[in-house]
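Hi Q.,

Before the meeting this afternoon, I wanted you to have the magnesium ion prediction in hand. No need to reply - just skim if you have a minute. The sequence and ligand are here:
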Amino acid sequence: MVRTLEEYALENNIPIMQKDGIEFLLDFIKENNVKSILEIGTAIGYSAIRMALLDKEIKVTSIERDEQRFSLAMKNIYDFGLADQIELILDDAFNVKIDKKYDLIFIDAAKSQYIKFFEKFKINLNEHGYIVSDNLSFHGLVETNEEIKSRNVRGIVRKIKNYIVFLKENEEFETTFYSIGDGVSVSIKK
Ligand code: SAH
Ligand code: MG
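Predicted structure with the ligand bound:
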């Protein structure tokens, strides 16, 4: 059950998409007739499973570098009977070379590397494809003026801000930002 995955993620601190965020993404996929998806950051397979459950014709390729999460995702996908729709790759996304093109690329991995993910995988986009990015708000820390104590968190927030600027100033892609879930953006080739 989808609920079981949500509970597991909550109990084990697995940062799956927030409720409004995933609902937004699922609506977007339906409305735009998206059939092929490349996801960077599988975790336990929650978002991949939700997307695949929308339609039998939807195919998801998802990359995860953490072996434990990957194994759990494999099991979950099996349990949902979605092994024919979801292909998982265990590796660091930066080591993976994919030739295929997708209707949608969903970036939901290490927040400090978003510009690099975007640059690496934009060639895998179909002509009228979309790049969706999650966690651009990073628990509200991107918008806050308060001082952030942890140096590590400060670094991530700075990188996300850089990514937002990168998207805003991008000459190839037009991006819309949504304050939904933990902050979601949709980029479309101009
Ligand atoms: N999309 C999932 C949540 C992903 S959480 C969902 O909503 O259900 C982010 C995941 O990205 C983590 O499990 C982390 O291990 C993985 N990750 C981070 N950087 C990565 C990289 N460079 N390559 C592959 N996976 C990465
Ligand atoms: Mg996320």
